[in-house]
Task: inverse folding
């Protein structure tokens, strides 16, 4: 490829809306261009990277007996009604009508399509296990698309669906998929990825894992134990519940706390640590008027995902306003008049004593509360977010909190979809049963951006060899010099013949200009041909990651380049 | 791949709605499954074929310096307003709103996206020519989806867009694209394809070609001259205009024709051949009340595409009803009272004499009309469809009429999009000019179905080696026999090691059952391992196209298979 003809201009200016490095650098390198909110064009460099990622994914999916298919982007309403998701999925799913007023949707996931395809085609246990997958465009109408290719509305995703005769068989296959994912991220050169247990959300099912790239700019929160390797998404993470029980329980006593309402204010006013106070956090059941009121220690936060699982309903945060029954900032469990509310106490309160709680009247709290003694609560559940330095339930080590980008996920779906959509197979005994499903996703564009986020420096991108858009940046200096020109073009043709992927900077431009483009684009190997190098019959090779800079004889150049590529793929 | 695990059951029953062979066979072979009108899932066999077609297209596009990109499926209204097509394209384009009430469309072609991407990235003549392309999902809300994968609503298409500094450069590149297309169809094993001149329709521009697979089930009509090779889509096809002028012009005379109104009736009543009568054919300008009335010989049909070009307006067929000005079935050019109508005479009438025309009153026609003598018409144009056996304008040969399926098209677009969307580059002289564009499309699914349509027989599909889903169907007979089982599995593993694409029929089933599945699926090479063949230490090889049936020594089997594959790819 001649750089002069590449549709994709480099720029020195960061796009004004770019908050993370991969967004800024991919735009500046001319690899991607915004078309509309969350909708991008991938130029040829980005497409080459994406194709390499797709091929690695494809190889690993085929290695675990995946059958590549193509499910439709546009699907009929009826298909999504079969699973029940036409109504339960919100605005993130695009719905529209065709010319005959038929309702259609844009696919954001393809469980329905996979079951639709498999249910006529898989009828016996002898055909199981089987796995179908696709690498296909999807659309999800994200409320907040951002971060370049990290969170978009239109994206290419590999989504895979496996079918099994038993839970044991699913678990066996799930482990194979888990390992395939590990290999995929390794092969595309992603370094800090961990698989964490996760909440399976709208997908249904029980066991699931998310693959998280650990990075400060990630929007997900992950709990890690450096001592034993415990890893979990914050949504499902657990820690040892610290009861903080004092040896002696003081008597319960109402105390004046003036204007103090926030935990920090109450704590300061009374001179007690925040973890000896409790706060009330309220939610509302989505689509209902029911209030969910949580009591939790002042130093802890409510984990909404855990709470949803406990009450088995979707919730939204709500603010309780003052009324004859409630005094905001002074709400407490003793003497609470709230009716028709679901009241949940965090597990850490069960044995707590000497606690400060709201007195349910203006300017007062109650101190010396002993939950076992003073509260008739029965609903103690673990609803707290794990805090940094909390104690690991597995090994007693101290837990770390990290940010991460979700780059892949795998789910044990169970029979949710096969049951709802009436897919059955005959088992060995001749009985009709619903197959058990697993599903497995990776976003291609997000993987691309995640590698960019992790592998870059002040000068630009820095692609791993396995997914680099081109392996070699051939860079003649003084291309107006006849010998340089001739040798550079000769080398270009020979590299192509040797199946080396080369981008040839055929422009008349200064060395600084060329080198900075090369660095920005992140091509792994830079090969410089200049009057000076040719005077010694040499080509200068330099690796983008700084690990090598050497001169090689012109004749040995291609051999050396091939050697470097092989060692790094 | 083990056949027992393949998601895609074979069936003996033709789908009831299948009117053409490719539709019936692809469904029966379990390769595709209908999801909604014009929307299909491709199973892994079909996907493998599609991927091979895509790779051949990709190689040929890259060979003419194409830069593969990915443009969005979903695009904002604003982009399509820039080109003016948001309003001019009809119901075939899907329009919808996102959660923020922004208007979006589903792409059915990507000129707008290509110009949007190129206009910031290509700024100088030095970057030209360049070509960007993608292989991507598209959606066109076809009024009449049918024919399996031939005419669908959702489809995968390769669409390419080239940019040029001059018309000469476009024409040079257009020829390269033309040749690349010829190679593509050849490589995917399509045999009866011709490139014909076409009407460029809504794409704008002037010169364009369609690649047509000649087949009786095609919906397009193509005019071919077997003598000189002239080829054109019926929409633009020309022939020598036969004036049919008699030596002596009879006098004009009104004659009683009773109830005779249709050409066949008038011709029979008066005992004159149909080509000595004329008929009136009426249209209406789309969105207006203006009538377009065409007079054409009784034996000819109006070519709407030619007519549209002449009047430069879109038209729809209309029926003129009786009124004080018109007598349907007796309309003629003499004494016609129709006002505010566009009246067009076919070129064949200009010198015609002794013609029968309507008399504009009930039960009467006028015979002996000499157009040069009796009619003051000035608007003679070629608006007739070419008939079989008409005379070729190039060589005087007799023209043939064929049906065809459009499998690809290439257009010289001119500056329509770059002008409308404000894309300019600096030319050599430093002036700002609009680049000239070409565009080039191939539908992947339609190509797949077209090859299937052309390459099949009573038993099933018959894939060319270059795009076959698997190259070898490994077929053990009596797999319950231990030696057969062992040898077959050994061969399966060795074939995979040798990078031969093999589907292994590992089922316990009768030879007839297995052979008919193999034939239906159309796998090029069948390798049979049976107690009988193994008794001689042999494997039986048979080609699906009937060109070879032979026994080879077990040890030589892989070598022979590789040789067959190489000779046929």
Result:
């Amino acid at each position: 490829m001649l750089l002069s003809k590449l549709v994709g201009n480099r720029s020195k200016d960061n796009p004004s809306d770019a908050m993370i490095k991969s967004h800024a650098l991919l735009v500046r390198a001319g690899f991607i261009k915004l078309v509309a909110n969350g909708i991008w064009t991938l130029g040829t460099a980005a497409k080459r990277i994406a194709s390499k990622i797709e091929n690695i994914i494809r190889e690993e999916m085929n290695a675990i007996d995946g059958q590549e298919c193509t499910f439709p982007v546009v699907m009929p309403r009826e298909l999504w009604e079969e699973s029940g998701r036409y109504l339960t999925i919100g605005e993130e799913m695009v719905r529209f009508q065709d010319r005959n007023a038929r309702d259609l949707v844009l696919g954001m996931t393809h469980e329905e399509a996979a079951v639709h395809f498999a249910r006529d085609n898989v009828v016996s246990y002898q055909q199981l296990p089987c796995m179908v997958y696709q690498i296909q465009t999807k659309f999800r109408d994200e409320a907040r698309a951002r971060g370049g290719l990290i969170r978009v509305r239109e994206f290419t995703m590999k989504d895979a669906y496996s079918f099994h005769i038993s839970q044991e068989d699913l678990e066996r296959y799930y482990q194979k998929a888990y390992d395939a994912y590990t290999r995929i991220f390794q092969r595309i050169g992603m370094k800090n990825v961990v698989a964490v247990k996760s909440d399976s959300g709208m997908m249904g099912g029980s066991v699931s894992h998310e693959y998280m790239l650990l990075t400060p700019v990630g929007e997900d929160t992950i709990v890690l134990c450096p001592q034993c390797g415990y890893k979990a998404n914050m949504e499902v993470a657990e820690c040892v519940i610290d009861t903080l029980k004092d040896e002696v329980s003081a008597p319960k006593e109402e105390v004046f706390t003036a204007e103090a309402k926030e935990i920090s204010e109450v704590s300061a006013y009374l001179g007690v640590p925040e973890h000896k106070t409790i706060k009330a956090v309220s939610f509302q059941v989505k689509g209902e008027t029911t209030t969910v009121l949580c009591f939790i220690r002042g130093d802890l936060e409510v984990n909404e995902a855990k709470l949803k699982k406990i009450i088995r309903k979707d919730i939204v945060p709500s603010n309780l306003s003052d009324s004859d029954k409630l005094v905001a900032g002074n709400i407490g469990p003793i003497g609470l008049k709230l009716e028709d509310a679901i009241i949940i106490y965090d597990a850490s309160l069960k044995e707590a004593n000497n606690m400060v709680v709201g007195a349910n009247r203006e300017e007062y709290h109650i101190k010396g509360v002993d939950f076992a003694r003073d509260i008739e609560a029965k609903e103690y559940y673990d609803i707290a977010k794990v805090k940094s330095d909390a104690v690991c339930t597995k090994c007693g080590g101290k837990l770390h909190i990290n940010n991460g980008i979700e780059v892949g996920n795998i789910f044990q779906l169970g029979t949710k979809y096969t049951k709802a959509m009436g897919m059955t197979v005959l088992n060995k005994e001749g009985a009709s049963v619903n197959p058990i499903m697993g599903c497995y996703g990776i976003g291609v564009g997000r993987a691309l951006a995640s590698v960019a986020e992790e592998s870059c420096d002040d000068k630009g991108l820095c692609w791993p060899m396995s997914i680099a858009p081109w392996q070699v940046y051939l860079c003649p200096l003084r291309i107006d010099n006849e010998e340089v020109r001739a040798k550079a073009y000769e080398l270009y043709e020979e590299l192509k013949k040797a199946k080396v992927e080369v981008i040839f900077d055929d422009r008349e431009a200064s060395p600084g200009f060329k080198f900075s483009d090369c660095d920005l684009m992140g091509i792994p190997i830079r090969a410089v041909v200049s009057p000076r190098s040719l005077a010694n019959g040499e080509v200068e090779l330099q690796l983008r990651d700084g690990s090598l800079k050497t001169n090689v004889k012109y004749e040995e150049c291609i051999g050396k380049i091939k050697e470097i590529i092989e060692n790094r793929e």
